[in-house]
Amino acid sequence: MRLVLLGPPGAGKGTQAALLSEKLGIPHISTGDLFRANIGEGTPLGIEAKQYIDAGKLVPTDVTARMVESRLAESDTEQGFLLDGFPRTVEQADILEELLAKQGHKLDGVLNFNVSEDVVVERMLARGRADDNENTIRTRLGVYREETAPLIDHYGDRIINIDAEGSVEEINDRAMTALGRS
């Protein structure tokens, strides 16, 4: 099963990805983890990405896409994967479609974790991180809406909406049911 996970910061994508990965027997591929691994290992892509990060800039789509392409070529993804953090834009979604087509695959679905802004703010404030205050959280949510709303339209009938409010177990049950794996 080849899935993309969408949802705002604080929607619980990482938590759900870990559970789904275990239950479905496919790897969770987070772009954040990919960046950390490539930078930590000093790969050419990691060195390139680090230059942007150190300058306070976003890592360009082509660098991120090459990291994702390299990761999707690994043998543990043959039965599928959960992609978290890529694509973030319609341009990246098109790149992903091309990468998968080269491998003779396509996405099976896009899990969209829906959660209200107030719940996100509450969850993120509860984490107690220094950079999590209500203003910065709401700004990040605004950026997410601007970048991701077009993705939801782009994926159309491949979107699988999941109510991401409630307990971790309830949300996971909803996701597994939506995937026909309950």
From TrEMBL:
Name of the featured protein: Adenylate kinase
Function of the molecule: Catalyzes the reversible transfer of the terminal phosphate group between ATP and AMP. Plays an important role in cellular energy homeostasis and in adenine nucleotide metabolism.
GO molecular function: AMP kinase activity; ATP binding
Binding, AMP: T31, R36, K57, L58, V59, G85, F86, P87, R88, Q92, R129, R140
Gene Ontology biological process terms from the UniProt entry: AMP salvage
Positions contributing to ATP binding: G10, A11, G12, K13, G14, T15, R127, G166
Family stated for the protein in its record: Belongs to the adenylate kinase family.
Protein EC: 2.7.4.3
The keyword Zinc is assigned to this record: no
Compartments it resides in: Cytoplasm
SUPFAM superfamilies (alphabetical): P-loop containing nucleoside triphosphate hydrolases
